[in-house]
Amino acid sequence: MKLKRNIAVSESGFLFDPTNGESYSLNEQGLEILNLLKKSKSDNEITSYMTETYDIPADEFEKYYLDFMGLLRQFKLLEDEQ
Amino acid sequence: MNSKRKLTVAVTGLNNTDNPGPGIPVIRALRESEEFDVRIIGMAYENLEPGIYMHNLVDKTYRVPYPSEGSDVLVNRILEISKNEKLDVLIPNFDAELRAFMKSRETLAKAGIHTFLPELEIFEERSKNNLPEFGKKYDVKVPAGKPVTNLDELRDIKEDFDYPVVLKGKFYDAYIASNFDQASMYFHKISAKWGLPVIIQEYIRGTEVNVVALGDGYGNTIGAVPMRKLYITDKGKAWAGITLDDDRMLDLTHRIIKSTRWRGGMELELIRSDDDEFYLIEINPRIPAWVYLAVGAGQNLPEAMVKLALGMNVKPFTDYKKGIIFVRYSFDLITDINEFEKLSISGIL
């Protein structure tokens, strides 16, 4: 899944969708995931990176990850949802 | 040395209130022109329009009669003012006065006063009464609509519409009614203020978005900037807004301007429905009060409109900054009773 091309994400975790003018605040982990998505990393690659970086089991991370991706989808921030 | 071309521009809509007219933002835009050194003559309908007292923006103001007193009365007053002020361009900013100035375009032009307004025919076509026909003719999605002139007709709308519905005045005002009782209350409120008919419109669920645009009268879009309101007043006016990056909104704008050969400024009011379709809910046939956002985003549309009015060649804008925000504010302007007196007694300040 890819982030829409025109989405702007700042280093501080401020996300702006210029198509509808909505903006969102990301925490550190959300920002990391978004940056990985922007680099076209797969779900498996993101899970590997996050579980290696943070002390969290893969199955637990996946639960949070699916919730997060659900939010991105709900807010129409993902390319394949357009 | 100032090499800018000197121009005298008359502007209406100095009511920079919580229901703002576009006059002051238009003047700010013209003051920022790199080509014109403008002298601004304000045309005011009421003595307390704030722009009258903004002497840094408005050089001189004249009281003018309401269009309801007759088109000729209004136009003759403008011609009389121009004898003293030598007006080069007139920018009307109220829907209610546009018809008078459109009909008098040639008379005004003979007096050296240039305007840049839509053709009367297309002005009528896009009116709220005629929006469903406009949608059909130009292949634009619009909500179903019906004008009503009395409570019996309002009661009968249940045959064609499901509540909630939107009730709109001929020129201004819109309310959402969830049932007949609310609808009849708004019907009386709107008809008392704006007359009949009151327009009933299908309520489309979604987000309101807007475009300010300028057409050259030959089907070309000189500029267009889409915006979403971030803060809306209880009168439904944008108190803050942000420029958007949406090609579909721009495509729709270009299409409407091309097919109608729109001449002048316009504001498209659109609803982006929950299923991501755009519905045109209104075309305001003039520059909107939030036009200064477009200037801030890189498109000085009022300046471009003045150039078009003067017959100058204008290169269309090709870009604007996305994510630019405006936030309106209120401001206490201090003036003296003498100023108010002067305007009240002589009609000039």
Layout of helices and strands:
The complex is a heterodimer of chains A (82) and B (349).
Chain A: E1 8-9, E2 14-17, E3 22-25, H1 28-38, H2 43-53, H3 58-74
Antiparallel strand pairs in A: 1-2, 2-3
Helix pairs in contact in A: 2-3
Chain B: E1 5-11, H1 23-31, E2 36-44, E3 60-63, H2 71-85, E4 89-91, H3 95-103, H4 105-110, H5 120-125, H6 131-138, E5 145-148, H7 151-156, E6 165-168, E7 174-177, H8 180-194, E8 198-202, E9 206-216, E10 221-232, E11 238-243, H9 247-260, E12 263-273, E13 278-284, H10 291-296, H11 301-309, E14 325-327, H12 337-346
Parallel strand pairs in B: 1-2, 1-4, 2-3
Antiparallel strand pairs in B: 5-8, 6-7, 6-8, 9-10, 9-12, 10-11, 11-14, 12-13
Helix pairs in contact in B: 2-3
* Helical/strand content category of chain A: alpha+beta
SS field, number of helical segments of chain A: 3
Distance N terminus to C terminus of chain A? 12 Å
Number of helices of chain B: 12
N-C termini distance of chain B: 29 Å
Query: Main sheet of chain B: which strands, in order across?
Result: 13-12-9-10-11-14
